[in-house]
Design a protein that fits this description.
Blueprint: H1 4-18, H2 24-37, E1 56-63, E2 70-77, H3 93-103, H4 107-118, E3 126-127, E4 137-143, H5 154-162, E5 166-170, E6 179-185, H6 188-191, E7 207-213, H7 223-249, E8 271-281, H8 283-294, E9 300-304, E10 323-328, H9 334-341, E11 350-355, H10 363-372
Parallel strand pairs: 1-3, 4-5, 4-8, 8-9, 9-10, 10-11
Antiparallel strand pairs: 1-2, 2-5, 6-7
């Protein structure tokens, strides 16, 4: 295991090697640092466990195997156990490849480096652990940023779940994820050779996995139409995730395309659907605003370093819920702040907090410290 100083040195070497740009690539490195290092005072590498009173479990749910289906990781308070498996922070090599594509670096070399730096890191949550019933938990739908995926913000999601929330981290299929996947039906001739090509991701033998990678902006392509289309799809995916949880909470059954030992029936009547929030980072912050406009079942929104560019400003007056903007000083610029301020209201609770002189490395740590004071 690398020492703390050794890890920072290795990361700095890789950053210099690939000459990460000031925008998207650097943001991705900060996300990686944030999730891996967590509390900067710790001498242990890895994702820090939640500080709340609850042990955290996690499981994946995919409803409908097609690209139009819903896919998210659920973090939840679980029954305490010492034998449950902790899943890998980066789920598979395809996500390493997606990160490489997003950062415009060589796949084969970057996979070795990413695997060396992060391959052994586990999410501090017990995979498929039994759910811990304790009244009704509030619900948060989490939307990741550009180039991320459902597990990259595990430090934040696990911390929130440890405090007594149910968190569904959506993996978006709009082309903004570094990587994601869905399934398609195998041709009949391929189905005859099941033994040689058994799919370990799904229980349905007639399906094969299809990987989707980050959709880069093409040369000469205008960015706003692409991002505006994506943010609308992202909001629809977040709303769909909430609707699935409402269905589960009501006792209706759902079919999980993925292999899982988790018993979804234990979630019946355990979620407080009067306390539902949408939360997201960067592009996910824009998704928060779009989702609030589209769906009144979200009672409030939390936007972390919200990237306001993809949004149509005409939707702002239609957003009626409270919003908390939490910004880091490094990310902000005048135009972005001006667009946030257009959501100010004299009648609806709206608040903006900016964390001064801090990078995303310490984003959650500083927010936690502020709320305690």
């Amino acid at each position: 295991m690398l020492s703390y100083g050794g890890f920072k040195h290795q990361l700095s070497v890789v950053e210099k090697l690939y000459q990460c740009s000031r925008t998207t690539n650097t943001d991705l490195w900060y996300k990686l640092r944030q999730a891996v290092m967590g509390n900067s005072c710790s001498t242990n590498l890895g994702i820090p466990p939640g500080k709340g009173p609850n042990q955290v479990g996690c499981t994946d749910l995919m409803v409908d195997h097609t690209v139009q289906g819903s896919f998210f990781r659920l973090y939840y308070p679980c029954v305490e156990s010492t034998i449950s498996e902790m899943p890998c922070w980066i789920p598979s090599k395809e996500y390493f490849n997606g990160l490489a594509d997003f950062m415009k670096i060589n796949r084969s070399l970057s996979e070795k480096i990413f695997n060396y730096l992060y391959g052994s890191f586990k999410i501090p949550a017990a995979l498929d652990a039994p759910f811990k019933p304790n009244g009704k938990y509030p619900v948060i739908i989490f939307s990741h940023g550009l180039g991320a995926f459902r597990t990259l913000y595990s430090a934040i999601c696990a911390e929130i779940a440890s405090q007594g929330f149910i968190v569904a981290a959506v993996e978006h299929r709009d082309g903004s994820s570094s990587a994601t996947f869905y399934f398609q039906e195998k041709p009949i001739e391929e189905e005859k050779d099941q033994a040689a090509s058994k799919n370990t991701l799904t229980t349905q033998e007639n399906l094969e996995v299809v990987w989707m990678y980050y959709k880069a902006l093409q040369q000469g392509e205008s960015e706003f139409p692409l991002r505006n289309k994506q943010v609308k799809q992202r909001a629809d995916e977040c709303i769909r995730a909430l609707d699935i949880l409402i269905q589960i909470n009501s006792g209706s059954s759902v079919t999980n395309v993925l292999q899982s030992q988790f018993d979804w029936t234990t979630l019946e009547n355990t979620m407080d659907m009067c306390r539902t929030a949408i939360m997201g980072h960067s592009f996910g912050g824009a998704t928060v605003i779009e989702s609030l406009c589209k769906e009144s079942k979200f009672k409030c929104g939390i936007a972390l370093d919200s990237w306001m560019f993809p949004l149509d400003e005409e939707i702002f007056p239609r957003v009626k819920q409270p919003i908390l903007f939490i910004n880091s000083e490094r990310f902000q610029w005048v135009g972005n702040i001006i667009r946030m301020r257009k959501l100010d209201s004299t009648t609806i609770p709206r608040k903006m907090i900016t964390i001064r002189s801090e990078h995303l490395l310490n984003f959650w740590v500083k927010f936690e410290a502020k709320t305690e004071n």
